[in-house]
Amino acid sequence: MSVSKKVLALAVGMVTALSVALVGCSPAAPSSSSSGSSATSGAATPAAQLNLVKPGTLTVGSDCDYPPFIALEGSTPVGFEYEMMEAIAAVVGLEVEYLPPQNFDSILASVAAGTKMDVGVSSFTITSERKELVDFTLSYFDSNQAVVALKSKGYTSAMDLNGKVVGSQSGTTGSDWVNENLKAPGTVLKEFNQTSEALAAMMAGDIEAVFFDEPVAAEQVKTTYTDAEIVESIATGELYGIAVSKTNTSLREQLDAALSIIKADGTFDKIFLKYFPDLTPPTLKAA
User: Fold this and answer.
1) Cα 251 versus chain centre, distance
2) pLDDT lower than 50: segments of the chain
3) The CATH number of the domain covering residues in 143-237
4) CA-closest candidate to residue 104, choices 190, 210, 195, 207
């Protein structure tokens, strides 16, 4: 899919207007500085002039272990986020290159440094703490947390795990939820580099349950861990965004504009429904 500079410039202006309209109902974000173009100018920065790790290429960091958002088939990334990034990059006029799988809790620091990857796309929930380190695009997914345990355990709520040994992926909002809510004596949180490692530990009996994002939990218990179940879906109201360095405002503006374009022309919804046929495609939001 291609788009003229005129259309992309118009989209940048539309995104700016959307951000202004939504700022009153969004958490305050730290200010960003950049030597790139200003969103208020209404002019799109040509792809060749974007500040990228590799000219002409959008270099993406991900843990590549979170189906159906992202996973590897051999060495090839697949999933919703991968196809979304392909569509976004095509609008901007860039190729997409995924780095080898990264540790989730190191990706945002790498994005902030801007020397290894241009963006982090790994189902990142937009939080005030993370916004101190990086900027985020418009959100592209609405999510909640879930707790998964073996059916044979008979748990009926997340609080049944209070005082138990549980697991999550390091650096995630699943870990945050456990630390904030399970405080009974005996509670132990074991953190893993990947959610799949935490699920394997649960199957082995090393931990009682795993806390992670509900859409991924639903996929895992349906296709892979069929002896397990979602004990409870926890309404945390999380929004996912693409992480971009605070010094690369022009790139963030282009990604926001491209997201708006693929949402408006139906490309985004088509990709979304391919992977989440039972969900309603979200609206894009400034967070």
Assistant:
1) 17
2) 1-7, 10, 14-42
3) 3.40.190.10
4) 195
